[in-house]
Amino acid sequence: MQYLAARRPTSDMSKFHGYRVTYEQSFLYNQDQPYHRYLVTGPRLALELHFYEYKPGDWSGGVECHYRKPPAYMADQAPSHETCHAFDGNACWHDGTGLWASEYWIPMWQTMKHAHDEILVMLVEEAIKRDRLTFRSGGEE
Q: Does residue 104 lie in a domain region?
């Protein structure tokens, strides 16, 4: 993977509620279109949006949720990744969807193309909501 740009937003970081945020643009394999990756990492989970245009007008991507410790529905499973890039090489339990990316996030990104901070804020808000729903009982921390 050849990285074109990796950046953290330069604006007011308080709007990210303490989450580590990153946007990267790179080329995957022999693709001539850029691959976009947004990652927000909090204390218990990370939310990642990634996608690229594999032919004009057709996009592929996904939204992945990485957990430092397994949520209740994954409690009896081994980690999905022994070395997770979202958690600096530590293990994670991981769940994701391509449909949510293709029906919501990619069309939204197409209207906001270079508004990286705004997209990251939206991902942080989603991560906070998902964290509350996943760990609301407090027993999975």
A: yes
Residue position matching structure tokens 């592929």? 60
Q: Which residues on adjacent β-strands are paired with residue 46? A: 41, 66
Residues 6+ positions from 12 with CB-CB distance below 8 Å: none
* Total domains in the fold of the chain: 1
Classify residue 130: in a domain, yes or no: yes
- The alpha carbon of residue 65 and the mean position of all alpha carbons in its chain are separated, in whole angstroms, by 7
**107 in a structural domain:** yes
Between the CA of residue 88 and those of 74, 76, 82, 97, 139, what are the distances in Å? Answer: 21, 23, 11, 22, 24
Give this prediction's pTM: 0.82
- Domain span holding position 69: 2-134
Q: Which residues contact 17 (CB under 8 A, 6 or more apart)?
A: 124, 128
Residue 139 lies in a domain: no
Per-residue pLDDT tens listing for the chain (141 residues): 344 444 444 455 567 778 889 888 888 766 677 889 999 999 999 999 999 888 888 888 999 999 999 999 999 999 999 999 999 999 999 999 999 999 999 999 999 887 888 999 999 999 999 998 888 755 444
DSSP character string of 21-32: EEEEEEE-TT-S
